[in-house]
Amino acid sequence: MPDHGEVWTMPWKFERLAENRLAFSVFSERFGYILTKQVTLTADGLNSNYVVSLANDRAALPFIWTPHALFAVYDNHRFITPERMNEIINVCEGGGELGKFGAIYQYPKPPLQRSELLTCH
């Protein structure tokens, strides 16, 4: 498995769903799933929605999804997560300030103050 998973190295399909909405999808022959990302431009932001669909013969697919978008962030920006998201897991090998790999924390209250720098070792 490549670093950061397999889909970033695979070709994606693209579809325009509406004037303000795009859909991107990729199929994994290796694991039998389709990952779909829909991006919608709204009056006050950009919404991204992800869905993983399993092939009919797959009963389950254990996975971890770690969003880490790269874009400029300013004081007036917000990162909004679903209400049901109440935990985060440390996927940083070596631990560092976030504790050991696999440690689970309550969200949105991380173990450190927002002003502190988080690093992976």
Provide the spatial order of strands within the biggest beta sheet.
Answer: 1-2-3-4
Q: Which descriptor suits the 3D outline? A: globular
Per DSSP E runs of 2 or more residues, the count of β-strands stands at 6
Order of helices and strands: EEEEEE
As a percent range, the share of helical residues equals under 10%
Number of H/I helices = 0
Task: Please write out the topology.
Layout: E1 13-18, E2 21-28, E3 33-42, E4 45-54, E5 87-89, E6 104-106
Antiparallel strand pairs: 1-2, 2-3, 3-4, 5-6
InterPro entries: Gal_mutarotase_sf_dom, GH-type_carb-bd
Describe this structure in words.
InterPro entries: Gal_mutarotase_sf_dom (IPR011013), GH-type_carb-bd (IPR014718). The chain is mostly beta strands and 121 residues long. 0% of the residues lie in helices and 33% in strands. The chain has no helices and six strands. The strands form two sheets. A four-stranded antiparallel beta sheet has the order 1-2-3-4, with no helix packed on it. The chain has a two-stranded antiparallel sheet with strand order 5-6. A hairpin with a 2-residue loop joins strand 3 (33-42) and strand 4. It is globular and about 40 Å long. It starts with 12 loop residues before the first strand and ends in a 15-residue tail after the last strand. Mean pLDDT is 80; it is low at 113-121.
